[in-house]
Design goal:
Layout lengths: L1 E5 L2 E5 L8 E5 L2 E5 L1 H22 L7 E8 L2 E8 L3 E9 L6 E7 L3 H15 L3
Antiparallel strand pairs: 1-2, 2-3, 3-4, 5-6, 6-7, 7-8
Helix pairs in contact: 1-2
């Protein structure tokens, strides 16, 4: 099992668990994800943070930005400025006869720490 956590965020992966091997969490909450949900969650977080990185040098210090992306079954929004941002994600999953939904939010600075941990876990764990 690989587990990382900090103030306002939590991320864990246990490859021995078949159905829900990944846990994401925030302040006082956590949810288990399927491997498919985790894979798409990773691409959503990666794409949001990559877009922010491309835009951050173009922003004035006082300018705000909001980046929204959809990667089925996820929707996400990175909201902030060139220095710091929050992250909100929504899961709308109706596959395999199950109805699952989730709204999650990481405030500044937990969002940056969570996004960094997501990339680190992705790079260090086999899918």
């Amino acid at each position: 099992m690989i587990q990382q956590e900090g103030p306002g965020w939590r991320l864990a992966k246990d490859t021995s668990r078949e159905c829900f091997p990944v846990i994401i969490g925030g302040e006082g909450w956590a949810v288990e994800l399927t491997d498919f949900e985790w894979q798409v969650f990773f691409t959503l977080v990666r794409d949001l943070t990559d877009q922010h990185k491309k835009l951050e040098d173009q922003l004035m210090p006082e300018e705000k930005l909001s980046i929204e992306l959809e990667r089925e079954p996820w929707w996400g929004c990175l909201d902030g400025d060139r220095e710091a941002w929050s992250l909100m994600v929504v899961l709308r999953n109706q596959s395999e006869g199950r109805l699952r939904g989730l709204e999650a939010y990481w405030p500044i600075p937990a969002a940056q720490a969570m996004a960094s941990a997501v990339r680190t876990m992705w790079d260090s764990c086999p899918s």
